[in-house]
Amino acid sequence: MDRLVKWKQSAGRMPLILEGARQVGKTWLMQEFGSRYFQSSAYVNLENNAIMQEIFQDYSNTDRIISAISAYCRTDIVPGETLIILDEVQEVPYAVSSLKYFQENAPEYPVIAAGSLLGIKYPEPRAPYPVGKVDKLRLHPMSFTEYLLAAGENQFVEWLLSRDIDMLQAFESRLVRHLGDYYYIGGMPRVVSTYLDSHDYHQARNIQLQIIDGFEYDIAKHLNSTQASRARTLWQSVPMQLGREQGKRFLFSELAGSGRARDFKDALQWLIDAKLVTKVRRVAKPGIPLMSYASDELFELFLLDVGLYSAMVELDIESVLVKNSLFTEGKGGLSEQFVCQQLIAEFDVTPFYWASSKTPAQVDFIVSHDGSIYPIEVKAATNLRSKSLRAFSETYGLHGYRFSLAGYKEQDWLTNIPLYAVSLLLEKPDAM
Fold first, then answer.
1. 44 with 184, same domain?
2. What does the alpha-carbon distance between residue 340 and residue 349 come to, in Å, rounded to a whole number?
3. In CATH, what number is assigned to the domain containing residue 57?
């Protein structure tokens, strides 16, 4: 919301495309933004909307489009005071093309468009993409910090933002309890809302299963039968492969049938474009930019949300209710999924990992920020041996970071950060 307000106030504002997977809250956010910060909103859902599909055929005629939206929504559209919202915009590629002409011919009209499958259903050859004519913002599932806000723990969030380590550690047991709930519930807004309203884990799990079914329906809807089968196989294998005790690499050989990378290439790209999985590439060394040292063939896959991960591995409620059961040996994949999700949502960074080609040594995540490299190790519990991280840090002269259930501690080569305080790693990015 803060970023949307910055967008509204910016002198060079362009039409905004809000990206993100299905069910992460794009529609709610746009409508709430319009309600809070504009005199009125004109909301148009383009899915199965024959009227608007016809109107946007003439995508360069902004006057005609504005008049049509005004009539369709039965509201006056006032420059600067009415937010035009175009939802499910991937269904009408010409609507995406129209954003160029809103920017050039009608910049006084604030327009925000959202789509879940823009990377898949676009481009349409006859409908040019508005390169350089739009702002973009990506919405993720709720981070743990946002979950704490939703749970009414505003004071904890204030201490996280002010980096008040002493106060955070004084309430460690309560924070760990919330962390356990978040591991199970995750950050999909409807799941969070259901759980916080009912405090019923079963209701939350049912919503998670509905969301997973919806994602798999999208796979079947948008891919042919062969590719759909491969995409579902990939999608369902992600949490199982993350749960392996040894080896940081997605193995096609572990897929059902004869898994070969080239056969799954298109299916994997579909899952990435749909924002359902994140591809974390292996880097040869911690150089800047990290992408220059990244491999396309060696990578890990993570889901978009830790709660969906928990549902897919059928994590039982007892693991949440029994103190620290979630964080014991065998749950490392769950904690890595959690950390990957927080790095992306909290800091807007691209995570990589490192693994030696000669020894079992590996570093769970490596990110760059403001010209510095941050090697990160994730420990599910309080087992704090960090041989790989220490050797890596000494070899490349880097300070290491470890997320675990142990308390905050700074050493000469390492900083240990509690898992509930991942947001302490870096400064938050400025809004827009």
1. no
2. 10
3. 3.40.50.300
Residue 404: domain span: 144-424
Q: In which residue are the tokens 């909301």 written?
A: 43
Distances (CA, A) of 309 to 102, 238, 375, 396: 40, 9, 24, 34
| Helix, strand counts (H, E) of the chain | 18, 13
Same domain, yes or no: 133 and 251: no
Which pLDDT band, with edges at 50, 70 and 90, does 259 fall under?
Answer: low
Q: Give the gyration radius of the chain's Cα atoms.
A: 23
Angular region, 157: left φ>0, alpha ψ -120 to 50, beta rest: alpha
Terminal C-alpha separation, the chain = 11
Q: What percent of the chain has pLDDT over 90?
A: 77
Within this chain, do residues 27 and 68 fall inside the same structural domain, yes or no?
Answer: yes
Instruction: Tell me the pTM.
Output: 0.92
Judge contact between 15 and 109, C-beta under 8 A.
no
Residue 432 lies in a domain: no
**428 phi/psi in degrees, rounded to 5:** -70, 145
Domain count, the chain: 2
Residues 155 and 19 in one domain: no
In a domain, 279, yes or no: yes
pLDDT per residue as tens digits for the range 395-432? 999 999 999 989 999 989 999 999 999 999 988 776 55
Query: Which ranges constitute the DSSP H helices of 106-171?
Result: 118-121, 144-150, 154-162, 165-170
Same domain, 134 and 149: no
Among residues 103, 138, 173, which one ends one of the domains?
A: 138
With respect to residue 429, please indicate whether it lies within any of the assigned structural domains: no
- Tokens (6 digits) for 158: 């204030």
Burial 65-83 (b: 16+ CB within 10 A, else e): bbebbbeebeeebeeeebb
Tell me the per-residue pLDDT of 2-60, one tens digit each, with 9 for 90 and over. Answer: 999 999 999 999 999 999 999 999 999 999 999 999 999 999 999 999 999 999 999 99
Task: Answer yes or no: is 431 within a domain.
Answer: no
Q: What is the mean pLDDT of the chain?
A: 91
104, 138, 172 - which closes a domain: 138
Q: What is the mean pLDDT of residues 244-265?
A: 78
Q: From CA 329, how far away is CA 310, in angstroms rounded?
A: 16
Given 3-state DSSP classes, what are the helix, strand and coil percentages for the chain, each rounded to the nearest 5?
Answer: 50, 15, 35
Instruction: Kindly report, residue by residue over 331-368, the tens digit of the pLDDT.
Output: 578 999 999 999 999 999 999 999 988 888 899 999 99
User: Based on the domain organization, do 163 and 203 belong to the same domain?
Assistant: yes
